[in-house]
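Morning run. Coffee first, then this:
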Amino acid sequence: MSIHALSLHPAAPDFSPPPDFADQLRILNFLGDEFDYFGDIRFRPGASFFDLIRFNRTHDVIELKTTDDGLTELPPQDSRNFVQIELSSSHETGLTCGCNIRDPLCPVCAIPLGDWGDLIGVRH
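And here it is:
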């Protein structure tokens, strides 16, 4: 099953969010409950999360539960029920992407930057 994680990173690589950044996002109801994800801190969506972040589509998620008889399929659920939010805590520049990554758009003219991978390579 995919992770359904939204990783938030600063736009400027040298920017460091304030220490109370998560608290500020909680005040906006963007972040919900905090939980441990294999040693990393993750958050559930807050009450206003889906008002602030729009998903063009969702999909059904089928969960499998281990029982004494083997695996049991649970009823399908909306993928939005599994969203988790990660706040970047790294000061190192890196590349995070998935199989459905799209070229980023120029913030000035909105033209897709097809050579963005090369641009990242130049930074390192």
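The longest helix spans residues 116-123. Good start to the day.
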